[in-house]
Amino acid sequence: MKPVEEIRKTRYQTYALVWVVLIILTGITLSAAGRELGGWTVLIALVIAGTKSGLVLNYFMHLRSERLTVFKIIIPLVLAVFLVFILLTFSDLAFRGGVK
Amino acid sequence: MALMILRRFGKMDDAKELVAGEVGDATGARLGMWLFILSELLLFGGLFILYSAYRYKNPVDFHHASRELDVILGTLNTIILLTSSLSMVSSISALQRGDRKLSMVLLMTTIALGILFLINKGLEWGTKIEHGIYPNAPALLARAKGEILFYGLYYVMTGLHGLHVLVGVCVLLVMLLFVSKGKIRSTHFTPLENSGLYWHLVDVIWIFLYPLFYLIS
Questions:
Q1: What's the domain range around B134?
Q2: Which of A14, A31, B46, B171 is buried most, with the most CB atoms less than 10 Å from its CB?
């Protein structure tokens, strides 16, 4: 029962620390949005959101302490599928204008 | 048979879980929950792509419409959901340590925060509807095409997310009942753990909804 043991070892303080980091990151997103950063705004917001979800997935959802390989590959796999969807959609959008 | 297969793959720990009976196949249950969560992520992912595509086509309209959303309420709701995730994970941790009372208090905190989130969302929608901004409203249809699209996506995406919060609250209420009756306890907590996974999923989705609707303008 290794995963359970490892989860047990996660102290409340660790969770609290993760929460503090999440709140700080929210603050950074908020203050970054108020500035004129042009095209960077979206990128910064998405990078911070990605970091925040990474923290939630690894610490709150315990992905970090899962030891089966399948848990390690499912997230990258889904992200890869999602990326294909994004690329297909935007390649369509980018080249559609000329046809119309 | 299952025992033999697990042994063959060297998963002795899981085999022990099966022998113990009470815990059952906890890893399998978690994996099943994860598959469901990933399908949910792709469901919202599709909507995120739709948002990006329309935003790419109508950047100015999206900018104007986004400015009208209440950033303070949005930020408050972000903090509420992040905090509820903390109380959720701590509730599971408390139960695993055998502290049932603390676990129940933390679970009730999570439920209360979830309800608070929904109340805020309701207030936000209420104000928008009062101003005549709701799907197919004459005042909204008179606006630019991009703004109509923005508010359409806003209602669909925050609405679908709100529905998930509502379902999460209901699931957690059932879990609270189970914990209080001792059906979920320190040796058998998989249902609570999986409900926690669902709750965190709702949090992860909001982490992306928040900057895309309230901040990027």
A1: 2-215
A2: B171
What ipTM score was computed for the predicted complex, to two decimals? 0.86
Domain count across chain B: 1
pLDDT tens per residue, range B88-133: 999 999 999 999 999 999 999 999 999 999 999 999 999 999 999 9
Same domain membership, residue A20 and residue A46: yes
Distance CA B145, CA A19 (A): 39
Same domain? For A57 and A82 the reply is: no
The total of structural domains in chain A comes to: 2
B 42-101 near A (Cβ less than 8 A): 42, 45-46, 49, 52-53, 56-57, 71, 75, 78-79, 82-83, 85-86, 88-90, 92-93, 96-97
Name the token pair of B85.
Answer: 């995730």
